[in-house]
Amino acid sequence: MHMQIDTAYRSIYVYAWDVLDIGVSAFVDAALAMGVTDVSLACSYHAGKFLRPHARKGPKVIFPEDGVLYFEPRQERYGEIKPQAHSDAAIRNVLADLLADGRLRVHAWTVLLHNSRLGAAYPHLTTKNVFGDRYVYSLCPMQPAVLEYARAVCRDLVQQYEPSSLILESPGWQPYAHGYHHEFAQLPTNAWLDVMLGMCFCDACQRAATEQDIQIKAVQQRIAGNINDYLSNPVPVTANQAQDWIQADLLRDQELRAFISLRQHRVTKLVSQIAAELRKTTQLAIIPTVQRPTADCWQEGSDLAALADVADYLEVPFYEPTAARAIHDARHTLRAIGDKPEKIRAILRPGYPDLNTGAELDTAITGLRELGISDFAFYNYGLLPQKQLDHLAATLNSQFGKDVA
């Protein structure tokens, strides 16, 4: 593990364009006035469409460049997969400028394998579903070139800039129902279908499974048959019914369970290799899932206990409509990692669609602190209306007082 941060982590997630909207110095002033001590800056990100309610300059609705880096990559450090930097030099310089300002600890929020631009450029390295269809938005971490790219991005970023921590998002496979634009289906979907369509059967995954004596072709055939059977007569099912289907398939299919375990081992290996290459002054935090609840992270290859062992923190998005549900998710997450609250950084959304549009933020923080969690981050500076940012500031002052001044 790496050198521990002396004081509690209270960070605001932000995109570089939102920092530039008011300038680096003014942004830091605003963050400090809110009671924030840290900033989690997107340094590698995917495509999107974002409404910026309090933007002063530039577009109110922004379409970020797809799959680019928000710093200056050193191309000689990369192998088969070559990164692309953002086209605007000012955007690329925000990371260095925040570090130079020095008043906030800077954390490099890095989206690794959710990248449609790279998927389109290197389709043979993407996830391949049970029917042989490629998912352009999801690079497959079982592919050696993808593993090396992920390591190279992290090495490059940390060696050049030395952030306080590296926050890794999407170190594994993306779920079926997340990550691409205009996702359409004119039939009722459910969690079971999403899980089965999210499995990767590319050449690297099949080879790794075969090496572990998993009869992967038989697994693929069973899953394909089950999906085709459902698609021939799709019916709406409740969330509980879908979870029952998942559980039933896992209980009766030992080969499928072994394949899922293999996927988790691969993601843990990637994270452990990245951790080994970091400077001692840079910590490593893992966002284990993009799904709710956190317990579903296994679908992406995340093993909470194993990741907590190899990384300094799990940075968990407790994105829930109520404080009670966020606290319940945190309690379950803590059980999964052996009741180690010091390993958890909690991310909360202090506004719509979570926590009763932010009204239950104080209750959520109180409940998480009672579980022993002391590190918090909040998403996202540019997406929240000013009213919600003001409410966040008031809540931080109430919760932490002089600790955040």
UniProtKB/TrEMBL annotation:
- Tell me which domain of life the UniProt entry assigns to the organism this sequence originates from: Bacteria
Q: What is this protein called?
A: Alanine-rich protein
Q: What is the lineage of its organism?
A: Bacteria, Pseudomonadati, Pseudomonadota, Betaproteobacteria, Burkholderiales
